[in-house]
Amino acid sequence: MLKGAIFDMDGVLVDNMKIHMEAFAAIARRYGAPVDIYTVLGMAGKGNDQIFREIFPADVVQRVGTDVLGAEKEAIYREMYAPMLAPARGLIAFLDALRARGVKMAVGSSAPIANVDFVFDGLGIRHYFDAVVNVDMVRRAKPDPEIYLLALSKLGLTAGECLVFEDAVAGIQAARAAGIEVVVLSTTIDEAILSSTPGVVLTVADFAGLDIAALDALTN
Predict the structure, then answer these.
(1) Sign of CA dihedral 179, 8, 71, 32
(2) CA 69 from chain center: how many Å?
(3) Are residues 102 and 127 located together in one domain of the fold?
(4) Same domain, 109 and 172
(5) Boundary of a domain, candidates 65, 83, 101
């Protein structure tokens, strides 16, 4: 029976990855850094520190620093996304159904806390979650399992009692390394790639009509 649901945030609670890519493009233009946005999309789920070190020229990273680059990029993202901030299709009804069943809920996100607060407060969904883990609370971002292991600890549940809801390969890898089965939302990466990634037990377009009873069979 499903006792815990752990959600990634970007691309899961909100369908916002296109805006993140536009923000990465904007910060790349600001610093004259030639960046392939499709390469960035393939790194979805990782922390900004990892992404900037892998995609930006070393001299820019050394001169500006990943903390500054990340803060500027996320500020651009929040400004761009604020007018269109909305929950993923079917999310609120799904959260209500989970709460009615007594399922504990957590967020495990590679986003900085400012972005988590932006989504939680903008959508009014903070009260649904029993625990929040974000990249500022761990030493290693996804695909390392630390974010999801900490979420399990905060919920007081075992990996077999929970499902993770993800949209990115790095997040799937993190959840599986933590021993948790994964339900994937096909919002970010091609569905064929996601469904063929080890650890994915179900792939859905969104939360609309997602059957909690069916999810019970996916847990111990």
Answers:
(1) positive
(2) 20
(3) yes
(4) yes
(5) 83
Task: Return d(Cα 195, Cα 159) in angstroms, integer.
Answer: 21
- Tell me: do 131 and 148 sit in the same domain: yes
Q: What secondary structure letter does DSSP report for 168? A: S
Q: What is the pLDDT of residues 27-74, one digit of tens each?
A: 888 887 777 666 666 666 667 777 788 778 888 888 888 888 889 989
Segments in the chain forming alpha helices (H): 17-30, 37-42, 48-55, 58-64, 66-81, 91-100, 113-123, 146-155, 169-177, 191-195, 212-216
Active site annotation includes 10: yes
Tell whether 208 and 110 lie within a shared domain: yes
Sign of the C-alpha dihedral computed for residues 127, 128, 131 and 135 taken in this order: negative
Single-letter amino acid code for the residue at 107: V
What is the number of domains present in the chain? 2
**Rounded to an integer, what distance in angstroms lies between the CA atom of residue 44 and that of residue 41?**
5
